[in-house]
Amino acid sequence: MPRLAEVRDAAEPSSAEQRARHSRILRVAAQLGAEKELERVQMQEVAKRAGVALGTLYRYFPSKTHLFVAVMLDRIDRLDAQAEKRPRGSLSPCDAVYETLVRAGRALLRAPLLANAMLQSAGTSNAATVPDSAKIDQHFQQLLLDAAGIDEPTTRDATVLRLVVALWFGLLQSALNNRTSIPEVESDLRVACDRLLGDLPGNPR
């Protein structure tokens, strides 16, 4: 694995073949991350299972942190794509955000080792060196804005959503550490959404 001083900027896939290779690497990394703890996942094994040269893997993902941050970003984008196909119906913005976070949390907790790998990587990464970590925040906030039906968020809208997401991440980590049950996580999240998101436009007064 490259030393910290040797870590380069990640390359972006530009052709259809490169994008397919990139997606295959993410899929293999997610599979390995679900099978074993993060420290036991080896980049060489990821490359071998994905059928790419180790140098190719490092060109796209200069470190294991880059790799699992990218896996998490991919998962969020998949949630976004699924959400676009799901009508919100009569849910209030507060309820829509809550339901989105519950679905996302349940999906993550179905693979606890992978969830730990993604949360650990995202939580310790610096956006200056791992740009996808900033994209996680941006894409996740946009997912919740879309769920709430907010096209032009105010500064306060963005702030309260950011607070709810930070609390959600903390609740998930608590569940992964066996300090909180999933029902408790969802109950606590319900309280947080009601308290923090009650003033979002479109909620019943």
Explain what you see.
The N terminus is likely disordered. The protein has 205 residues and is an all-alpha fold. Helix 1 crosses helix 4, helix 4 packs parallel to helix 7 and helix 5 packs antiparallel against helix 9. The chain is 69% helix and 0% strand.
Q: Rg, please? A: 18 Å
Mean pLDDT score: 89
Largest sheet: none
Please report the total strand number as a whole number: 0
Give the count of helical stretches.
Answer: 9
- What is the straight-line distance between the termini? 55 Å
Secondary structure elements and their pairing?
Elements: H1 16-35, H2 43-50, H3 54-60, H4 64-84, H5 93-109, H6 112-124, H7 131-148, H8 155-176, H9 182-197
Helix pairs in contact: 1-2, 1-4, 1-6, 2-3, 4-6, 4-7, 5-7, 5-9, 7-8, 8-9
Quick summary of this structure?
This protein has about 200 residues and is an all-alpha fold. About 70% of the residues lie in helices and about 0% in strands.
Sum up the structure in keywords.
about 200 residues, mainly alpha, 9 helices, about 0% strand
